[in-house]
Records
---
Amino acid sequence: MNNILELRGLRKEFGGLVAVDDIDLNIEEGEIRGLIGPNGSGKTTLFGLISGFLHPSKGEIIWKGKNITGKPVHSIVKQGVVRTFQLTTLLNDMTVLQNVVIGCHLHNEKGFLMQLFGTAGKHEKDKLVEEKALGLLKTMGIESVKNELAGALPHGYQRLLNIVISLACEPKLLLLDEPSTGMNPVETQDLMDRIKMLRDEMGVTPIVVEHDMKAVMGTCEKITVLDFGKKIAEGSPEEISKNEKVIEAYLGR
Ligand SMILES: Nc1ncnc2c1ncn2[C@@H]1O[C@H](COP(=O)(O)OP(=O)(O)OP(=O)(O)O)[C@@H](O)[C@H]1O
Ligand SMILES: [Mg+2]
C-alpha cells in the first residue's frame, strides 16, 4: 500500500459545532475515492482542511509522508494538493480561454511552466501558456466553447471550466466538491469518464464529493461516508450500498 494522504484524528470545530469529528483517512496513490454523506455532514469542511483553506482544531494531515498541517494554501497547492469549490468561481466577463490562461499564470508564476520555458520571450511564453490552456480545455472536452464568455456558459460547462482551471495547478491530489451539480445524467457520466481519464493519463488521484449515487458507485473504487462529521463507513461501492448505518443516515433525514 502506498498512501499519499493520511489524515490522523482530524477535527474541526466551529464554535460549539463539531463539523469534522476526529477523522482518520488513508488515500492510496491512483485510487478514485468517493466522499459522501448527508447535507452538513462535513465533506466540504474536510476538503477545506486538506487544502489548507481551514486549519484543524486538532489532528494531522500527512501528504507523501510529510506533515503539512497548518501550511499556507499556496504551499499546499505547490505540493500538488488542489481543491475545486462547490460553488463555481469564474471571471464571468472573460472568455473561457482567458479564464484558463489567467489560472495558469496565477499558479505558475514561479512554477514549473516558467522554469520549463526558461528564457523564452514574453510573446513566446504567452503562446506556450495558451497552448497549455487549450490542451487542458480539450482534456475536459470543452475546447469548442473557448471563445465564449465564461459567465454565459450553461452551468455544467462552468463546472467543467472550474476543473480545467484547477488542472492548471498540476494537481496530484484533486479534491472535487460536487462537480456534477447542474449536469444531466449524460453529462454526469461524461464527467465521471473524464475523472477516470485524469487518473489514468495524468496521474491525478481524485477524491470526489458527489450526491449522484449512481455516479459515485459507478466511478469510485472505495467510498468513505460521513455523518455529523464522523466517518460512519468505508468500503467498496457494493459494501457501502448495503451498509445499514449508511442507509439509516440517508433515510433518517
Ligand atoms: N465557516 C463555518 N462556520 C460555521 N459553521 C460552519 C462553517 N462551515 C461549515 N459549517 C457547518 O459545519 C457543518 C458541516 O458543513 P459542510 O459544509 O462541511 O457540510 P457538507 O457535508 O459539505 O454539506 P453539503 O452536502 O450541504 O455541501 C454544517 O453544520 C455547517 O453548517
Ligand atoms: Mg459541501
---
Amino acid sequence: MRNIDFKFFKGNVLNEYNKIKKNDGTPFKVYSPFWRNAEQFYLERLPDKISKVKKCKKINTLFKNQIKSEEILPKSDWYKKFEKYWVPSEQKAHENLDNFVNKSILNYGVDRDFPSIKGTSLLSPYIRNGQINVGDIWQKCKKLKSNNVSIKKYTNEIGWREFSHSLINYFPQMLKGNLRKEFDKFPWVNNSKFLNAWKKGMTGYPIVDAGMRELYETGWMHNRIRMVVGSFLVKHLRINWKEGEKHFRNCLLDFNEANNVAQWQWVAGCGADAAPYFRIFNPILQGEKFDKQGDYVKKWVPELSKVPPKFIHKPWEMEKKYQEAINTIIGSNYPMPIVIHEKARADALSAFQSIKKKISHQ
Ligand SMILES: Cc1cc2nc3c(=O)[nH]c(=O)nc-3n(C[C@H](O)[C@H](O)[C@H](O)COP(=O)(O)OP(=O)(O)OC[C@H]3O[C@@H](n4cnc5c(N)ncnc54)[C@H](O)[C@@H]3O)c2cc1C
C-alpha cells in the first residue's frame, strides 16, 4: 500500500458541506435554517483569509501528452443541435450573469414562474460545467446592495443548490433510494407505455408535453415545468421517481447529481423538506396559471398552434366540429390524455394512504 497524502476542496459550492451543521452537530434537513446558517457562515469568511491566487504568468504543463478538445467530443454529433441554444464558454457565462443582474434580476420574483419569458438566469449549465462559480454569482448579487425581494429570491435558489449538495454529502444513501424510508413500500406502477409517452412529450397534457420536448431539444427545462412534469410522472402515472431522475440525467446539460436526486425526491415527497405527496399539481391549472395564452405550449407543441387560449391546456374539450375546422383532431394530430386527471389524483392519494397504513400497523 502506498500512503499518498491528499487534500479535498469544496469545488463549485459556497461552503465545505461539513462546516454547516446544527448546534448539536447533526445536519440540517430543513432548507430555511440551513440557508440562514450557510449564508451567514459564507459572509463571515469574506474577504477570504487565504491570500488570493495570483494570476499565473507561466503556464505549466503537467502532462506530456495532452488531449485535444476534439478528441473528447462524442463520436456521433447528437450534441450539435445544442449549439443553437448554448455557447459553452466562461466569457458567455459571465456575460449572461451581467445581463441578468443588470436587466432581469429585479423582476425575478415574478417572472421566474412563467416559462414563456426569459425570467431566470439560465446559468445552470455553466455552473454545472465549471464555467462560472456560485461564489461569483452570489457576490455579484450582494454588490447590488438592495433589499429588493427578487434579489433575495434569486440568492435563495443558490441556497437550494447548497442545500441539495449538503444533503447528498451527509446522506449519500439518497443517491440510491428514498431518504424517507416509508416510501420504500410505495406501490409504484411499472408501465413502459406511459413512461415512453412521458419521455416523448405525448401524454396529451400540453404543459407536460411542452416541457419534455423542450428538455429533449435544448438540454434544459424551466424550473416550474420540471416540477409539473415530475409531479405528473410520480403522481399521475405513479412511476418511480428514479425513472424520471434517470431520464433527466441523460438529457439535462445542467445535470448535477445532488440537485437532480434531491429535487426528484422533493417532488416525490420522499426527500428532505419535500413537497408533501398529497399536494398534486393539476397540469391543466398549472398551464392556465403560468402559460395563460399558451405561448410556451405552442412553441414546443406546434401541432396545437391553432388552438385558442381557452382550450390550449385541455384541447380534448374542443367540440369535434371545431377540431375539424382548425385541423387539429385530438386523438389523431395530438394524443388524448393518457390518464384522466381526477382519477389519477384519487388513485395517487389512495396509494399514499396505503403506505401510511402500513407504517401505523407496524
Ligand atoms: C425534478 C427536478 C430536477 C432538477 N434537476 C436539476 C439538475 O440536475 N441540475 C440543476 O442545476 N438543477 C436542477 N433542478 C433545479 C432547477 O430546475 C434548475 O437549477 C433551474 O431550472 C436552472 O435554471 P436557471 O439557471 O435559469 O435557474 P435560476 O432560477 O436562474 O437559478 C439560479 C441557480 O440557482 C440554482 N437553482 C435554481 N433552482 C434550484 C432548485 N430548485 N434546486 C437547486 N438549485 C437550484 C441553479 O444552480 C440555478 O442555475 C431540478 C429541479 C427539479 C424540479
---
Amino acid sequence: MRGKLRFGLIGCGVISGTHVAAIQRVGGELAACADVVPERARTLANAWGADVYDDYREMLRRGDIDVVTICTPSGMHADMAVEASRRKKHVIVEKPMDITLAKADRMIEACRENGVKLAVISQHRFDPSTVYLRQAVAEGRLGTLALGDASVKWFRSQAYYDSGEWRGTWALDGGGALMNQAIHTVDLLQHIMGDVTSIRANMATVGHARIEVEDVATATVKFRSGALGTIVATTCAYPGLSARLEVHGSEGSAVIDSDKLVYFKTGTEQRGYEAPEAPGTDGVGNAAAAANPGGLNVWAHEQQVRDMIEAIREDREPLVNGEEGRKPLRIILALYHAARTGQTVELR
Ligand SMILES: NC(=O)c1ccc[n+]([C@@H]2O[C@H](COP(=O)([O-])OP(=O)(O)OC[C@H]3O[C@@H](n4cnc5c(N)ncnc54)[C@H](O)[C@@H]3O)[C@@H](O)[C@H]2O)c1
C-alpha cells in the first residue's frame, strides 16, 4: 500500500483528539469522522479539513478510507469493528476492545475473515520503561520472578461519571476502576509477569452515588510461572495518585510509576537505577491521567498508530493485535466473576 493512509474516526469525545494528533504525527490523514452528536464530529473535522458523518455506517461505505479508529463507548466497539472489517477497513480500537470475550472473539474472527488488521490500544506497552523491563525480565536479569503488583490509585469525580450516560454502567463501560482505568496496568502486569492462571478478588462501590460499577477492587493472582501477584484499583483515591507496577525476583526488582521506571536494581548490575522515559513526556502522561481522563500524552498513542501503519505496509500483525488485546479483558472479567461469587477463578 503506497501513499498516505487515510483514517476514518468513530466517536469524537475525550480520547479522539489524542488519536487525531497521533495520526497527524505519523503522517496519516484524517479523512472523516463520525459521531451521533454531529457538533462533536464537526469540531474535530473542521480542525483537520475532514468530512463529517452522523451515521458511521455511511462513513464506512467510502472506498477511500484505509483505517477506522473506534473511540466510542466500550460496549459498542465490537459491532463497529465487525462492520468496518466487512467494508475492508483495518481497525484500531480503543481499550477495552469490547466488554465480553464473545464480542472480542467476534471482532478477531471478523477481521481475520476479511483480511484486515486489528490493533487494540494499550499504549503503555510502547513506553520505554515497559519495553526495557520486559526485555530485562526475558533476559533473566531479575532472576526467578516471585511477585508482581499492579496498583492504580486514581480519582474520578461524580461529575466525570455524570459526563456521559454510558460511564459507570455495566452495559457500556463494562466495569469501573478495573475495566476502564486499571486495564492498562493489568495488561502490563500480564505482559511482564506472564499468564495469570488463578484469581481471588473483592470489589465494591463506595465513593460514587450514581454508578453501577466498582470504584474499588482488590485481587490476588497466581501466574503460570508459579509467581504470585496483586491487583489493586480504585477511582476513589483523591486527588489521584499513581499507576504503579512492581516486579520482584530472586535477583532484582523494578518499579514503574506513572509510566516511568523509577526503580531498577539487580544483584549483578552495578548500574542500580535506570529511568528510560518517553521523549518529551516528563512522566506527565499517566500522572496527569490520575485525576483527569483527558490529560493523556500523545506520544504513546503515536507509537501504537505507527506500529499499525507499519503492520499494514509490511503485512504483519500489529504488536497489540486482537489476541493480545483480549488478555487483560479476560483477566478483568475473571476477576469480576471471582469477586461476585467469592470463589477462586481458574484460567487455563
Ligand atoms: N487509551 C486510553 O488511555 C483511553 C483514554 C480514554 C478513553 N479511552 C477509551 O476510549 C473510548 C471512548 O472514551 P471517551 O472518554 O473518549 O468517551 P466519550 O464519551 O468522551 O466519547 C465517546 C463518543 O462516542 C460518541 N458515540 C456514541 N455512540 C456513537 C455511535 N453509535 N456512533 C458514533 N459515535 C457515537 C459519543 O457521542 C461521544 O462523542 C472508551 O472505550 C474508553 O475506554 C481510552
---
Amino acid sequence: MTAVSAVRSTQARSLSHPTLRQGARGPSVTLLQQKLRAHGFNVSVDGDFGPNTAAAVRAFQQARRLGVDGVVGPNTWNALNAAAPSTGGGGATPTLRQGARGAAVSQLQNRLRAHGYNVSVDGDFGPATANAVRSFQRAKGLGVDGVVGPATWRALNGGSVGPPPATGGARVNGYVNGVAQSITVSSVGNGKFLRTDAANAFNRMKADAARAGINLSVVSGFRTMDEQRYLYNLYLQGRGNLAARPGYSNHQSGISADLSVPGGYGSATYRWLQNNGRRYGFVNDVGGEPWHWTYRG
Ligand SMILES: [Zn+2]
C-alpha cells in the first residue's frame, strides 16, 4: 500500500462508511450517491439505496474489478474514495463497439441516458446499448454504425452547454415557467453552469465558504431539456428525486443548483449555507432537499 492510499483508507475509516446494500437509507447513502456521481454514474442523490443505485454500484464494482455484488463494503468504499477519473468532455473516450466492457462503457451508457435513451448502466455494451447508439447517431445525423468513435463521443458529450468562452457567458436554450428562452450561463466549476448572474454570486459564495473551510460543489446546475426529461421520468417511476415537469424546473432557468451536502441538514455545509446563503441571494426552497439552492437575487 502506498503512503497516499494508506492515508486515504485511514480517512475512509474515520468517516461514516457503514456497509450498505439495497434498501438502505440515510446520510451514508447520500454520500455513496455523491461518490458514484463523482465517478460519472448518473444516480439521484436522494439518500435512498434503490435499484438504480444498486445498478450503479455493480457497474462501478465491475469497472474496478471488485466482487460484483451491489453491496458497498470496505473495498468498494475505498475505491469510491480514491480520486474519481475525469469524465465527460475531458475524460477517456476510447472507441467502443458491441462486446466492450468497463468504465468507459458505463460512461457511454450514462451519456445515452442523459440524452433520453433508456439503457441500463451496467458497463456492458450489449445489443440494447448498440441499438441506443444507432438511434442516437441517426437523430444527430451521424454515420449509423453503432460504433462510438470521436464524432459520436463529441455529440454525446455535447448538449446545449459547451465550455464558456473566455470572454463571457455562453448562450443556451433554457426554459422559464414553460417558455423556451435563451439564457446566458457561466461556469461554477465541476463542469456545471448557472445563469451568469447566479454563477457570479455562487462563485463569490464558494470563495467565501472555502475561507470558512466549507467546500461548495455543484452536482447539478443548469439542465437541458433532455436532462430534465430524464430526471422527470425517473421521478415518475419512483426512482428519483422530486423533479419538476420538463420546462418548469428552475434548473432549466439556470438559477437552481444542487450542491454536495454530505450529511444533509445536520451538516456543517448545510449550516453554513443556511447562515450565509441569503447574503449571496441563495435560498433553500424545496423541503426535504437540503442540496437544492435557488438564486433569488
Ligand atoms: Zn435541484
